[in-house]
Amino acid sequence: MADDAAGGATYAAAGVDIEAGDRAVQLIKDKVRSTYRPEVVGDIGGFGSLFAFPRDRYRDPVLVSSTDGVGTKAYLAHATGRFDTIGIDLVAMCVDDLVCQGAEPLFFLDYIAVGHLDPEHISELVEGMVVGCRQAGCALIGGEMAAHPGAMEPGEFDIVGFAVGVVERDRIITGAHIQPGDVLLGLPSPGLRSNGYSLARKVLLEQAGKTLDTPAWEGAHRTLGEELLEPSVIYAAAIVALRDAVDLRGVAHITGGGIPGNLNRILPDSVDAVVSRGRWEAPRIFSEIQHLGGVSDEEMARVFNLGVGMIAVVPPGDAFRALDVLRDHGVRAFEIGSVTEGSGRVRIEPGR
Q1: Residue 249 included in any domain
Q2: How many other C-beta atoms can be found within 10 angstroms of the C-beta atom of residue 164?
Q3: What CATH code is carried by the domain that includes residue 114?
Q4: Of 210, 211, 248, 282, whose CA is between 20 and 30 Å from 174?
Q5: What's the confidence (pLDDT) of residue 8?
Q6: Range of the domain at 99
Q7: Confidence of residue 1 (pLDDT cuts 50, 70, 90)
Q8: Where are the beta strands (DSSP E) in the chain?
Q9: Distance between CA 215 and CA 235 in Å, rounded?
Q10: What is the spatial distance between Cα 125 and Cα 75, in angstroms, rounded to a whole number?
Q11: Structure confidence by residue, pLDDT tens digits, 271-324
Q12: Total domain count for the chain?
């Protein structure tokens, strides 16, 4: 209807359905509550989210915050109609930045923008965030849903996440203590995570003419869409456990910029990181992109994580213990290189 009973224009006719928003909130309430930690105060519906800081657990706490999105991976979720995993990616992008500085994730908030507010669609998006928050051990304590009719088409969406964590001031991980001889441990990523999707889409969908509902490659047991929507591993809990078990000197989240563009962010000017490319096997999707697009080795390493989602730096005497701790937390890491004297550079070598 274009008008209300009095003949005037309505918000619903303009494309914003307030009742749909209310229904969406009802659908997600119990899911969101399932992530609550003891520090969460109150319930859904307030103008602000309340979280009682656990003062008894910290001597000199520092809050660490992060915000991120999922880039054009959201386009693939829209194209396939699968919205239940993209929220996991959103949480991963935020909380796995926090833990690079040694922070324990405390809580998470989200912002969802849609062309048309469909309660079931919102519920699926939030379901992924709930799963991600449970894996990270943080509470999903707030969020916002916004309908943007005219600016976005029905079915289109974008999501942004915000996370806050805490670390003792004297336990902040900066990379400043990394020294020659230290070991680089790679934490595996089974897919593209949430980076490089613009290049992946251009190569696979435009240049190669593939479709999302066909096998990812010849003989593959799942579709290209399923392969590209592989949810990101959330490393937060494993890294927090590693922080408490060994001398964890540096952590790099491998996102946009690949290994060279992220590992260098934690290196002192006096050392180099030497990554031996032959130490691990990258998931098949990367070789498909490189072959079909004629992408150079340098460009692949600069854009994609190549199967390594996080790198931890530990002294050689702690390497085996670190691998055991990570395995106990569901992450089968591997040694991918070492630290040498240098000038703050990352060198990727063919290795063995």
Answers
A1: yes
A2: 21
A3: 3.30.1330.10
A4: 282
A5: 79
A6: 18-171
A7: very low
A8: 40-41, 50-51, 61-69, 104-114, 139-147, 157-168, 183-188, 250-253, 271-276, 308-314, 334-341, 346-349
A9: 29
A10: 13
A11: 999 999 989 999 999 999 999 999 999 999 999 999 999 999 999 999 999 999
A12: 2
Helix count and strand count (H, E) for the chain: 11, 12
Alpha carbon distance 143, 133 (integer Å)? 13
- 23 CB contacts (<8 Å, ≥6 apart)? 119
Are 110 and 160 within 8 A, CB to CB?
yes
**Residue 142 tokens, joined:** 């707030």
- In contact, 302 and 209? CB cutoff 8 Å: no
- Please report which helix (H) or strand (E) contains residue 292, including its range: helix 284-293
Where residue 204 sits, what CATH number does that domain have? Answer: 3.90.650.10
Q: What percent of the chain has a predicted confidence (pLDDT) above 90?
A: 81
Name every residue whose Cβ is closer than 8 Å to that of residue 269 and which is 6 or more positions away in sequence.
343, 344
* Residue with tokens 């593959």, as numbered in its chain: 220
- What's the CA gap between 154 and 184, in Å, rounded? 46
Instruction: Please tell me the pTM assigned to this model.
Output: 0.94
Does residue 188 sit in the same domain as residue 288? yes
Strand partners, 313: 184, 250
